[in-house]
Structure formats: structure tokens, C-alpha cells
Design a protein that fits this description.
alpha/beta, four-stranded mixed β-sheet, 10 strands
Length: 253
């Protein structure tokens, strides 16, 4: 069983912030709609008594503001729901990695790096004696279609709706390049792998391209890919591996 040295924290922090925001916004929502309804009644009465439209115009503006607030509130609720899905996917990935990788592997989750003005985040970093694996995990359902070289893919859902999504392969490759640029350990570039892993049980992958077998994975396929390379010649001793992990974690403090 592999060792986990750091668990995810950024999604959890964002989720807690959203919960706090919703605890304030939901009571305010009822106050806004009560005030809007009162303005509508006032505007109708004012128009009936005076024969002018100024009251209805003002109450109509209040309705637009309340509707805008409602839309924004629903967007926050949707973000909270998406974050919960993302957290479930990342937890599932971390648990499966820990359970099914060898005990000389180290798993560090949810890393945030900065190089100059650029920032990059890694969902899961697996340090092994023979290689390093940078994993971008996505908890996406439905059918994903596209080419390995495309910047955008199509996600088709069971309800028939589709949306364009950024290629996780390109995200993982960018993270790999940035990690190589900031690493101080002398690790060959060809021993640092970028994996896009889809953790939702209902996902279907329809990704074309000659290199997709080494870049796009379901969870079990990603674990098999890592385990298949356990017997490659080691590039790091156990002490070097631990030292590298400690250095990475210190940079997160």
C-alpha cells in the first residue's frame, strides 16, 4: 500500500467558503423577494391612483434585480454541487492509488505551485522509484469525444445535452512542463508522465489519437499503467524519494 503524505484541501476550502456564503445569501433571498413583491403592489396601486407608469417602472427594475440575484444564487449552488463531485472523484482516485500501488510509492494530493507569475495545480502526484506521475483527475459523466491534440472536447450527457470542455490532457501536459521547469532533482524528462484520469463510473471515452493509450485513462487503467512501470530501472533511492517528497510539501506551506 502506497503512502499518502498530503490529502486534498483546496476544493474543501472553496466548498466551505461557498457554504458560508450561502448561509448569508439564502435568508437575504427571501428579504429581496418580499421587498420586490411589496414594490410590485405599490407600483400597481400608484399606477392605478395616478395614471402614471413610474411606480411600475421602478417595481419592474426591482424584479430584474431580484431575478439577477436568483440566477447568481443558483450558479453558486451549482458550483457547490460540482465541487462535491470533484471532491468525490479526487478522494476516489487517491484511495485507489493508495490501495493498489506498491508501498515504495508516495502519493501527494492537491498541490499548488507558482513559477514567477504563473500558477499550476496538480490533483495527484505519485512519486515512484522508477518514475513520477502527474495526474489530472476529472469526475465527468457522459461521453467524451475529441482528439488527443484538440484543445476542446465535447461532453455529451445522458439527457442529450452537450457542452464544450477543456482538454484534461493539455492541462496535465502543462502541469508536467511546469513541474519539470521547477524541479531541482535530476530526473529524466521521459520518466515524468502526465495522465488524464476520469474517475466517474459512468464515463465513456471516445478520444482518438495515436498517443491516447498513454495519456487518457479510467482509474483502473491508470493504476495498471503505473504498476507496469514498477520494474523499470530505478532513478531514485528510497532516501532521495522521501527527500523529494519533503521538499515538495514544504513548498506548499
Amino acid at each position: 500500500m502506497a503512502r499518502i503524505l498530503r490529502s486534498e484541501t483546496s476544493l474543501q476550502r472553496r466548498q466551505r467558503a461557498i457554504v458560508r456564503e450561502l448561509s448569508l445569501r439564502k435568508p437575504l433571498r427571501w428579504a429581496i423577494w418580499c421587498l420586490t413583491i411589496a414594490l410590485l403592489v405599490w407600483g400597481a396601486c400608484h399606477a392605478w391612483r395616478t395614471g402614471t407608469w413610474i411606480g411600475l417602472v421602478l417595481s419592474g427594475f426591482a424584479v430584474l434585480c431580484a431575478a439577477g440575484y436568483e440566477v447568481h444564487l443558483r450558479e453558486i449552488v451549482a458550483e457547490h454541487r460540482n465541487l462535491e463531485g470533484g471532491r468525490r472523484g479526487e478522494r476516489r482516485m487517491a484511495e485507489r492509488l493508495a490501495e493498489q500501488l506498491a508501498n515504495d510509492h508516495i502519493i501527494i494530493n492537491d498541490l499548488d505551485f507558482r513559477i514567477a507569475h504563473e500558477r499550476f495545480q496538480i490533483d495527484h502526484l505519485v512519486l515512484a522509484p522508477s518514475a513520477i506521475y502527474i495526474i489530472e483527475s476529472k469526475f465527468w459523466a457522459g461521453t467524451l469525444s475529441g482528439d488527443i491534440r484538440d484543445t476542446q472536447w465535447l461532453q455529451s450527457r445522458a439527457n442529450g445535452r452537450g457542452r464544450s470542455v477543456k482538454s484534461p490532457v493539455l492541462q496535465a501536459e502543462r502541469q508536467r512542463r511546469m513541474f519539470i521547469a521547477q524541479q531541482t532533482t535530476n530526473i529524466p524528462d521521459d520518466r515524468i508522465y502526465a495522465l488524464a484520469v476520469f474517475t466517474h463510473p459512468a464515463v465513456q471515452l471516445n478520444i482518438t489519437g495515436t498517443q491516447n493509450q498513454e495519456k487518457v485513462f479510467r482509474v483502473q487503467d491508470a493504476i495498471r499503467f503505473i504498476n507496469d512501470r514498477c520494474f523499470d530501472p530505478p532513478i531514485l533511492t528510497p532516501d532521495q524519494l522521501q527527500q523529494l517528497a519533503d521538499t515538495i510539501i514544504r513548498r506548499q506551506a
